[in-house]
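Q: Given only this backbone (466 positions), what sequence would you predict?
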């Protein structure tokens, strides 16, 4: 990071602002079958794409507003490869340092065909010639057949395994991107936890999550990935008034495979925390423990973490009209075309939103929150440290780990020696606690996927999926 960039960040923190982020949905066209997404190829609705003209205007304005991170998402961005490459270059030219895009992996089908290597080499060379920093490939399950069935891409895992060394040779290190779903550790590996459950059932559910996620991280490393990220299940707040939220981003579904109830999510995040710690030496895993801790606290009635910066510093642009929204889920707040002027810090800190767990916006909000408070409202930071010291332990651990990961630079290989120092990392301050029982005791085995217990599930097609 250059001194001028660092100074820019400090000035932003002092104004109670954090480095800006923009997620641009280039298109809602897609060629995959994912049951967990309303943009899948079998859904019948009018498809859209943003043209190069509107895209360039958006990116120009992002540059003027000194947006630091931009993601080009879909649908499937690689369906528009020429436009995508043009926009990756354009974003670099306007000075945006963190540029991301990804794919659902369709380009890695048919690894048995003789032209496979040439095809992948050409793609990798084109992407590597742009300033893209992170390129994600969506993976839904530790079981290849389950992933391929969900996406509708037979043989794609073998193709990804063959493609990764080719990408690495071009200096691009793709990330495995998992949208949490009930098949993540294999078909139906995550059961449904009834609302009224016993402590044993809760422990079983958490163990299933932890083991499934552990299996997933090992699988991703075995495939050849060096970076992984996790997209949390998207369920809108139960406290939200009916009709208050409306997803503008189509990567949503009510399918049970991605629907998790509130009481499940707290346990899921606990299992995820453990699986991440167990695999931090194996892969560079982005999902921050401080964010998982904050969301567990929120879900179990503990102290809340930092408010989401959606609509303040982070924004979503949809493919239908090219309009701006606070995020992909507050679709009633259409702010029109992404303009050159920052609307100012008026809302910062006064309109904190906790209505969902969209990692794209929640994770960076939690990660930058302490720095922002340090420079803008230090007394508030001290109060928070007193109230929730565990958050700050996780935060500090995350920062040290991120440093060992080279801050997830997808243009650099993993530093194996630095990662190995994280082998067997456990947090001795956080014993494996049993979650309290809710409702009547039950001893029956947990059911596998059934009726969705809560509103909206989501797979991801944003900064780290396709
Ligand atoms: S999750 Fe992504 S790849 Fe799957 S249907 Fe939706 S947009 Fe397409
Ligand atoms: S928490 Fe963030 S991403 Fe979720 S609805 Fe609120 S602003 Fe949007």
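A: Predicted residues:
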């Amino acid at each position: 990071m250059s001194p001028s960039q660092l100074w820019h960040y400090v000035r932003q923190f002092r104004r109670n602002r954090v480095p800006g982020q923009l997620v641009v949905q280039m298109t809602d066209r897609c060629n995959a079958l994912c049951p967990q997404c309303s943009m899948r190829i079998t859904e019948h609705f009018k498809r859209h794409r943003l043209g190069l003209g509107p895209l360039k205007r958006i990116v120009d304005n992002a540059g003027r507003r000194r947006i630091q991170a931009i993601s080009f998402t879909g649908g499937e961005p690689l369906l528009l490869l020429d436009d995508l490459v043009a926009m990756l270059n354009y974003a670099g030219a306007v000075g945006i340092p963190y540029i991301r895009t990804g794919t659902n992996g369709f380009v890695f089908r048919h690894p048995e065909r003789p032209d496979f290597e040439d095809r992948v080499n050409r793609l990798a060379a084109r992407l590597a010639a742009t300033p893209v920093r992170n390129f994600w490939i969506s993976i839904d399950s530790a079981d290849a057949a389950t992933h391929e069935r969900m996406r509708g891409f037979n043989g794609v895992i073998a193709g990804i395994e063959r493609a990764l060394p080719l990408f690495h040779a071009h200096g691009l290190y793709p990330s495995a991107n998992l949208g949490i779903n009930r098949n993540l550790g294999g078909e139906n590996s995550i059961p449904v936890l009834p609302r009224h459950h016993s402590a044993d059932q809760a422990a079983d559910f958490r163990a299933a999550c932890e083991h499934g996620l552990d299996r997933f991280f090992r699988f991703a490393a075995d495939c050849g990935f060096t970076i992984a990220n996790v997209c949390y299940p998207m369920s809108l707040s139960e406290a939200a008034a009916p009709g208050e939220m409306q997803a503008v981003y189509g990567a949503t579904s009510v399918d049970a495979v991605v629907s998790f109830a509130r009481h499940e999510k707290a346990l899921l995040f606990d299992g995820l925390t453990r699986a991440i710690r167990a695999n931090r030496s194996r892969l560079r895993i982005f999902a921050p423990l401080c964010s998982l801790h904050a969301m567990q606290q929120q879900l179990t009635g503990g102290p809340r973490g930092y408010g989401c910066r959606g609509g303040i510093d982070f924004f979503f642009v949809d493919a239908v009209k090219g309009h701006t929204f606070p995020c992909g889920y507050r679709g009633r707040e259409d702010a029109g075309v992404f303009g050159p002027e920052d609307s100012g810090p008026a809302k910062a800190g006064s309109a904190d939103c906790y209505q969902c767990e969209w990692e794209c916006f929640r994770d960076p909000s939690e990660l930058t929150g302490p720095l922002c408070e340090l420079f803008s409202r230090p007394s508030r930071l001290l109060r928070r440290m007193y109230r929730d010291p565990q958050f700050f332990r996780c935060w500090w651990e995350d920062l040290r780990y991120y440093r060992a990961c080279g801050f997830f630079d997808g243009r650099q290989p993993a530093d194996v020696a630095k990662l190995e120092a994280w082998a067997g990392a456990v947090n001795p301050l956080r014993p494996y606690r049993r979650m309290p029982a809710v409702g009547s005791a039950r001893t029956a085995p947990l059911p596998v996927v059934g009726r969705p217990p809560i509103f909206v599930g989501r797979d991801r097609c944003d900064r780290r999926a396709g």
